[in-house]
Amino acid sequence: MILGVIADDFTGATDVASMLVRAGMRTVQVIGVPEGPPPEDADAVVVALKSRTCPAPQAVRDSLQALRWLQAGGARRFYFKYCSTFDSTAQGNIGPVAEALLDALGSDFTIACPAFPENGRTVFRGHLFVGDQLLSDSGMREHPLTPMTDANLVRVLQAQCRGRVALAGHPVVARGPQALRAHFDALRAAGARFAVVDAIDDAALRTLAGACAELPLVTAGSGLALALPAVYEAQGLLRPDAQAARLPAVGGSAGVLSGSCSSATREQVAHWLAQGRPAYRVQARALAAGEDVAAQALDWSAAQGETPVLVYATAAPEEVRAVQAELGAQAAGQLVEDCLARVAAGWVQRGVRRLVVAGGETSGAVVQQLSVQRLRIGPMIDPGVPWTQVAGRPLLLALKSGNFGTPDFFAKALAQVQ
Ligand SMILES: Nc1ncnc2c1ncn2[C@@H]1O[C@H](COP(=O)(O)OP(=O)(O)OP(=O)(O)O)[C@@H](O)[C@H]1O
Ligand SMILES: O=C(O)[C@@H](O)C(=O)CO
């Protein structure tokens, strides 16, 4: 193992793993910190935690445990992956986790860069943009758990850290890896512990990867992962594997589950419906009334034969708000997650072998229900979303972050694997 990655949520882990595989690293994702040795035939291992919004001390504990397991497995370089929209609160968890990892590695400096240009996340003059909007003007302003109301990453990260946060801005990034490394040395000598680094495109991320070549720890969104394998290759550590993304054909039938209400997912569901494809809607109110909606959805889907179907709870924000006001946000979410996870288990029992799941929490519930412990990462469907294979089983999963993917994502994903 060359690289050990600690990811602060589930679909985010799959995202970073996909970037590494694209660049030729054989990558395995593990769910939580496992026991026992790491997988043998992997250049990179990604530990998927659920540490984005839990109390900071717990996020630190889990991340340190992941670090120790990755170190024991032979990793010497580490990557703390957070969201490309820098999802966090004033208490953390990005700052506390990054500082704890630095301390544990005996290191005094690292970088922070959530940029993912392919998905419209760029950093300029220390400010994070989502498409053409500042982070603080984007939908992230209203996120229920981690509202992002300040786009200035130096200020946001500084509020979460003991050490000093500085900026490595676009002018120095544009001068290439050597100039950027010299700038890091100067910042470090002046007492900075973090450099927020501007990156407006993939070329900037390649410069950043080159400048970070000797750092034990980097902290970033998934964009930087695309550029790291070339650095490991130049250092003689990695021989990129053109077959890194190859997964076996599994046969069987296919299905789509959607528990995400994010705007990209809503478009994807609307696109599926507009094409007249079979779809079954799960209503949170029916679940709350005690109806066995999962059994109904399973009976309905069995009647559709081999045609891939969609079972979805995806709804517009006002509908979700109304249901949440009646049932409570937590309770409504749990009912929906449990239902979709039971549908997943029923499908797999009946021979579904290729399953697309939309939504991070929803993916977590499905993966838990299916007792998945390891995923081998396969080909990319859209930036940030790969097909994966459940280790040792003829079962392929595509776990989609709410806001990723083109409108035709579901059908495109199903057409990609056999
Ligand atoms: N119709 C609905 N009414 C109430 N809650 C719903 C409804 N549909 C889905 N939910 C809940 O909303 C939550 C959606 O979270 P999830 O993480 O799955 O999607 P997301 O936030 O779009 O994805 P990501 O975290 O990858 O951005 C889940 O808990 C789900 O059960
Ligand atoms: O970085 C991203 O945007 C995603 O991988 C993610 O973390 C979604 O929760």
TrEMBL record:
- An example Gene Ontology molecular-function term: kinase activity
Q: Which reaction does it catalyse?
A: 3-dehydro-L-erythronate + ATP = 3-dehydro-4-O-phospho-L-erythronate + ADP + H(+); 3-dehydro-D-erythronate + ATP = 3-dehydro-4-O-phospho-D-erythronate + ADP + H(+)
Q: Which UniProt keywords apply?
A: ATP-binding, Carbohydrate metabolism, Kinase, Nucleotide-binding, Transferase
Q: Which residues form the Four-carbon acid sugar kinase nucleotide binding domain?
A: 256-410
Q: Which family does it belong to?
A: Belongs to the four-carbon acid sugar kinase family.
- Explain the purpose of this protein: Catalyzes the ATP-dependent phosphorylation of 3-oxo-tetronate to 3-oxo-tetronate 4-phosphate.
Query: What name is this protein filed under?
Result: 3-oxo-tetronate kinase
What species does this protein belong to?
Answer: Ramlibacter rhizophilus
Taxonomic lineage: Bacteria, Pseudomonadati, Pseudomonadota, Betaproteobacteria, Burkholderiales
